Amino acid sequence: MAWIKRNLLFVVGAVIAVGLLAAAGVYDFKNWQRNNAALDALNQAYVTLQGLKSQSPSPGNDQIDNIKAAGEQEQQLLQWIQETKHYFQPIPSVPDPADGEITDARFAGARDHTLSQLQMEAAGASVTVPPQYGFSFEAERTLVKFTPGSLDALAQQLGEVKEICEVLYVARINSLDGVRRVRVSNDDASGPQSDYLDQTITTNDLAVFTPYEVTFRCFSQDLAGVLSSFASSPHGFIVKGINVQPAAGVTAASSASGPPGTGGFAQPPFGNAPPAFTPTPAPISSGGLQTVLNEQLLSITLDIEIIKPLPGN
């Protein structure tokens, strides 16, 4: 103790020095830990960068900025979507009341008027349709009360079927054999299977996709007109598939008169077509013209999808 008293300043200085050394050690240890953590983060970032650079496409480098290019392409895509809206205009529902409310009575009245109108338009275009055909709405044809919650979907489909049939009428097909749609109501369970597709309406982030199938008979030049009309329609028609087969027993040689597609061809009644035959070529006189085309009536089945953009797209 006497020594401490004699050397008090030295002892105090030594204690302070030891404390400072301890603080410096702790500070260095913490910095060492931080440096190690920073080094690990740097190594991980380097590994991530190398992984990104090895991807295809990569984010780019000092000369090529793929991230910026991706942003520009996204803007171009959004601009293209805006420009193509003209080709995806919604088809009005039938009925389409001003107040937006579709009641049982309104739909029943619009149904009767539309089915009658489609029959009359077919007759006016010389297009044969089955007698009293319901255009895929046979199940709803005599109803006055409908499944609650189904009227909007039925009205939308009625409007779309009407638009599809009118495209076929304008193209002057010879006959419409049938239209098939997706079931959207419990009432459809009582309808004939020939009216329906075993598919569903699908939706993604951009649009609703509604499938239909139409079967009709025409000649090849009329089929070209049908496809052209669907392609140029402003209502988002996409032909997903086409099946073409000869229609039994009817060729251009067996027609009564008139060019293809004018309704001047003799047609077999529905479900009672005569057996197919091959016409015997007429003898060719010396110097005469040889027949190089003997067009046959075709049975066409089109798989059609209607694309309806969601609100805001």
Features:
elongated; 6 strands; alpha+beta; 6-stranded mixed β-sheet
Walkthrough of the structure:
It is a single chain. This protein is of the alpha+beta class and 313 residues long. It has a domain at 86-267 and 295-309: Ribosomal protein S6/Translation elongation factor EF1B (Alpha-Beta Plaits, 2-Layer Sandwich). The protein has six helices and six strands, in the order H-H-H-H-H-E-E-E-E-H-E-E. It has helices at residues 2-6, 8-54, 66-83, 104-124, 151-170, 220-232, and strands spanning 175-182, 196-197, 202-203, 207-218, 237-251, 296-309. Strands 1, 2, 3, 4, 5 and 6 form a six-stranded mixed beta sheet that branches. Helix 4 (104-124) runs parallel beside helix 5. It is elongated, with a radius of gyration of 38 Å. It starts with a helix and ends with a strand.
Overall strand count: 6
Which superfamily, in CATH terms, is the homologous superfamily of the domain at 86-267 and 295-309? Ribosomal protein S6/Translation elongation factor EF1B
Strand content: 15-25%
Average per-residue pLDDT, rounded, comes to 80
Rg for CA atoms = 38 Å
Quaternary form: single chain
CATH class of the domain at 86-267 and 295-309: Alpha Beta
In CATH, the topology of the domain at 86-267 and 295-309 is named Alpha-Beta Plaits
Shape, per Cα inertia axes: elongated
**Helix content bin:** 25-40%
Biggest β-sheet description = 6 strands, mixed
Secondary-structure element order, N to C:
HHHHHEEEEHEE
